[in-house]
Write a structure and sequence with these properties.
The structure holds two protein chains of two kinds. By secondary structure, chain A is an all-alpha fold. Chain A has helices at residues 2-20, 25-32, 41-62, 82-98, 102-107, 114-134, 137-143. The chains are: A mainly alpha, B mainly alpha.
Amino acid sequence: MQVLATLISGLLFGCGLVVSGLINPAKVLNFLDLAGTWDPSLAITMAVAVVTTAIGYRLAFERGRPLLDSSFHVPAGNAIDGKLLVGAGLFGIGWGLAGFCPGPAIAALSIGSSPALTFFVAMLAGMAVARGVASSPNLTGVMR
Amino acid sequence: MTDFTPLSAAIGGLLIGLAAVLMMMTTGRIAGVSGYLSRLLPPYSDDATAVRLSFVVGLVLAPLIYQTVSAEPIATSINPNVVLLIAAGLLVGFGSVWGGGCTSGHGVCGLARFSVRSLAATAAFMATGIVTVFVTRHLLGG
């Protein structure tokens, strides 16, 4: 049941990426191009998504537990550290270079173009490196 | 140039929000794409692989279903420069795992539950994204 619920969530999410235009790197880059051909559409997408989620989360948390699990799996930490800011900062540079973040990069695989595939494979490699470094205590010490 | 499309942007945002809410209501999890995808890679810490894979499969199938139903082509325009794509992909992959989330986990779900950590991350990636586009488009003229 968890698999089915998550699959439906993925389908909805993916349709949202298509309808909003987030799947189109040109639209993302124009959203970030404040000094040029600025297209504010995706600011609306983000705002509506955040408000919808905030209202829905409130209803979900009021129930006390999710329908298909015994408890919520929500990150508890609230610390803003260097790792968070460096990671997010690097992520933003990559996002600004190609116009893809992980969701659209996955959804764009369905279009079957070779640039989308190239980006996706490089993104997986970057994720694998970060997971490898994060799980190796010595390397993590060096990176910090 | 891309056109300002407020209505489809809002509908898309609504769908993304509903997807995140559905996931929290049912499985109690944050709809963070980078988390789902990266945890399909080693090292493995639990046995939720089928659930993670189903989210990724849904994301891939969605455009195909949308295209079949609407009979409209999906507009995408991607820079074909391979070196740029590889550099960007590595940065997005590494950064999203290192920073514990991406546009979905921090930018939508994190902000929606008023996480200060996610607010800081979102401010950081919005800032570097905007600066990167400014540098590549207006200083380097790419």
